[in-house]
Amino acid sequence: MKKGVKLLKNQFTGQMKDVKKYKIESKAAKKGGQSKVRKQMPEVFEVPQEKAIEPQENEKLVGEYVMNLDDMEQAPQQYECRTIRQEWVIALKKRLRQSRSPPSGLTLPVLMDPTKCKSPDEFKNSDTQLGDYKLFLLGGNHLIQAMKELKDEGINISSEINVNLYAGLTPEEARSVGNRHNFMMTTLPVTFQQKVEQTRKFYKEGITGGDLVKKIKKIIQETEETKELSEDSCSTIVSVATYTETVYLKYQKLVKIHEQKSGCDKNISQRLFRALQGCSESNKLEFLSKALEDGLKITAMHVEKARARESIKKVFQQNLAIASWEEIIKKYPDAGEELERFVGKNKIIDLIIIEHIQSFE
Q1: Integer angstrom CA distances of residue 156 from 70, 97, 108, 142, 159
Q2: Domain positions in the chain
Q3: Share of the chain above pLDDT 90, in %
Q4: Strand pairing report for 107-112 and 22-23
Q5: Can you give the pTM of this predicted structure?
Q6: Judging by DSSP bridges, how do beta strands 107-112 and 135-137 pair with one another?
Q7: Are the C-beta atoms of 22 and 91 separated by less than 8 Å?
Q8: Which is it for the CA torsion 247, 171, 81, 93, positive or negative?
Q9: 263: phi > 0 → left, psi -120 to 50 → alpha, else beta; which?
Q10: Which H or E run contains 259?
């Protein structure tokens, strides 16, 4: 058995000039009408143009090969930059039923089993055949899953895939390769929830604080065209990614509901998660549980009002020189009702509240 079929292209980038577009249209659009149904997926499935590879990953690139569909499998969790969304797989299957082949010019990143092959030189200098290794997909998982499912259904579909074959990538390097592939494809954007998913992997590896923020910035730079990010702009991702296991499970349920309702290509609203920053784990668990029943928007409003109340109570306590809110209520029975006048109002100035408090005397 040969060590795979190597393509006569630049071994590091490949020249991807043949671009094929898949348009996902509603039935109403095909008839010339306007559909009122939400757009389920991005409209264009496009083969990426050439993009540079990071130097350390360049050194771990074996070359470009043609592989069989069945030779590739999903990577272990620590090497995945995102989990497979079945909704997207279904959308791709609809298009592949027509084309019976993947987009022309497409090249997918694939990693040789890192427990069996540590570097390109180790593979090139051994007598082991490529077919004897497990080959893990770092990008294109949705496409390959869709093709495999069609094949299992008896659909005659092309099985040959161009791949960039890597050896010896670390989990972080593998996720970076996958991130850049997904960014170039422009079809299924890397959403807030997928950035949280990647960040949590770093957190569970023991990375925290400023080092975790640096990892988030790297993820965002790999998946978006964006300017330099401040630490504050990463704070919501950090907050969610570092939830305790129990709280994180509630968050994952909210993500699942959101993606079933709005599509896996849409960012989940961050409003509630921003509002929960700095709250105790018990409060986070309580409000995320409520969100599963009442929805993200309503629960976010409840949290914002609750936090506003606590903030205004402190202003009352400081300016009345009374240690606790309970003591304030005893001395000024109407204080609770008065406090509610300020809750939910934007840009309340402390001086206005203080002036109001002084009228109590």
Answers
A1: 14, 9, 21, 18, 9
A2: 1-188, 189-268, 299-358
A3: 42
A4: unpaired
A5: 0.68
A6: antiparallel
A7: no
A8: negative
A9: left
A10: helix 245-262
